Amino acid sequence: MSAxxxxxxxxxxxxxxxxxxxxxxxxxxxxxxxxRAFSQRSVxxxxxxxxxxxxxxxxxxxxxxxxxxxxFYQVEPDVAGKLAWKPSYAEISAGGDxxxxxxxxxxxxxxxxxxxxxxxxxxxxQTDGWKVxxxxxxxxxxxxxxxxxxxxxxxAKRRRDSSARVVAAAELRRLEAAERVLLLAWKTRGNAALLxxxxxxxxxxxxxxxxxxxxxxxxxxxxxxxxELSFEPGGGGIAPAxxxxxxxxxxxxxxxxxxxxxxxxxxxxxxxxxxGVWQVALELHVMPPRxxxxxxxxxxxxPVPDAVW
Length: 309
Known about the structure:
This protein is α+β, with helices and mostly antiparallel strands. The protein has one domain (29-156, 163-292): Roll (Nuclear Transport Factor 2, Chain: A), CATH 3.10.450. It is 28% helix and 36% strand. The chain has seven helices and 14 strands. It has helices spanning 3-18, 29-45, 47-54, 69-75, 164-189, 193-196, 215-221; strands spanning 55-62, 66-68, 82-85, 89-92, 98-108, 114-126, 129-140, 151-152, 198-205, 212-213, 227-238, 244-255, 261-272, 278-286. The strands form two sheets. Strands 1, 2, 3, 4, 5, 6, 7 and 8 form an eight-stranded mixed β-sheet that branches. Strands 10-9-14-13-12-11 form a six-stranded mixed β-sheet. Helix 2 (29-45) packs antiparallel against helix 3 and helix 3 (47-54) runs antiparallel to helix 4 (69-75). The protein is globular, with a radius of gyration of 21 Å. The model is unreliable at 9-19, 158-163 and 292-307 (pLDDT under 50).
């Protein structure tokens, strides 16, 4: 075969490979890989070391109330046992620099017993790589299915607006307003208010129960929950592209009229719709398990029990 023919074949192959379609989930793989590496570091080096490596400087965690993450892990003893998790869902901003993951976790205790739950982590891309800006988990009984099929939100078109950060600042104010409206509705209509301000693919991580996925599942599951919940906003953040954001704060829960009042926190991930409406895509309530009894509201001077994990 002639050299010219060989060259033509090589060029054709190069073009074909270069134009090959990327996997449909390629846009979320950066935060999925970061979450998996985070979990692996937790197993290999311990939970405390892993969180101190992956938490952003101003990150928040729950213990069970919201508190500064790095200060929390610097002073607290390491979690007894091996904590591992696996992202089963991921979503990323159109800008590719902000997103969240959620999925099941397991805590293997020193005596070999297992605890189960689900976590949610919000990620932001910083100068030193992907970092967690807020993280929380909800413990529950062993699930029927430990492994969950991975899912993701399809890629959105990227913004090419040079004023994206100015837009994001305005959208953050709109997000905070949406949070206030939701909390006011929750006071008058209870848990049902969540569905009025949620996406169709809502993920709800309630305390003491496996997560509910999708509007239909949440709508079917809410009537069986007798929780009385109240919320106190603590802050939030937004993607530079202004299409994803989160809010968090303190929360109290009474699981029935005669149940004790428990203190914890909440994490709410919001997605802006094509019509510019902010809707809840993920709702996480972090509370001490019912078998631990009442826990006082967390302050920097109050020791944190091993309640959440």
